[in-house]
Write a structure and sequence with these properties.
Length: 215
């Protein structure tokens, strides 16, 4: 039996709608974000998980709690800082427009995956950190079904690393708030991408399906 991972991005936050590079900084779910997370919980009603893991940042933890709201048996998500969003260093909590006005060339190179934010993590570091966290989780739960809640850029970096995507193409994915990406790991650790960015639980209300940034 393989191990199946339901990899979820947290719900919409105030940092998302304000266009902030929140990274390791805290930001609350918006009312719309709460509705998204509740829709995710209804979507996962009847899905059995053997364990749940979440970034230790509150936006991911709260999303995980809503996702498990209808689970048949109570599960407390394990908080893992390895699943955190990219750390943006001096850009933490700044709006993209502010950064673009101050450091346009540096921001351009950042989005090309050429340089890290000043004092922040590089793309290579985020890829290694997040993929290692996910593999630790999978190895701890053989032949299981797991819920893992993380962040936009963290999920992109993680998937890029697991699929051996070139570093400069690490941001070539779209990860919607509360979307589900399904990964299957064989006993030997081989990963198959079985589903990506599934946010059909938001389709009943177009207002819930917006995509806001990657923090």
């Amino acid at each position: 039996m393989p191990t199946t991972v339901f990899l979820v991005r947290h719900a919409e936050t105030f940092g998302n709608i304000e266009g902030r590079f929140c990274g390791h900084s805290e930001t609350e779910l918006t009312p719309k974000g709460v509705e998204q997370a509740q829709a995710l919980g209804r979507r996962l009603r009847g899905q059995r998980f053997d364990a749940a893991y979440s970034s230790d940042l509150s936006r991911a933890h709260r999303t995980a709690l809503y996702a498990l709201e209808h689970h048949a048996e109570p599960i407390e998500p394990v908080l893992d800082p390895g699943l955190r969003e990219m750390h943006y260093g001096e850009w933490e909590s700044l709006k993209g427009g502010e950064i673009g006005a101050r450091d346009p060339d540096l921001l351009r190179e950042f989005f090309r995956c050429k340089v890290p934010a000043p004092g922040g993590e590089s793309v290579e570091q985020v890829r290694a950190r997040t993929a290692a966290a996910l593999r630790r989780t999978v190895e701890a739960h053989p032949e299981s079904t797991l819920l893992v809640v993380s962040h936009g850029n963290a999920i992109m970096a993680m998937i890029a690393e697991l699929l051996n995507v070139p570093n400069e193409s690490s941001w070539s994915f779209a990860v919607t708030n509360t979307s589900i990406t399904r990964l299957i790991f064989s006993k030997r650790g081989r990963m198959t991408l079985a589903g990506f960015n599934d946010h059909s639980h938001l389709d009943g209300d177009a207002a819930l399906a917006g995509d806001r940034g990657s923090s």
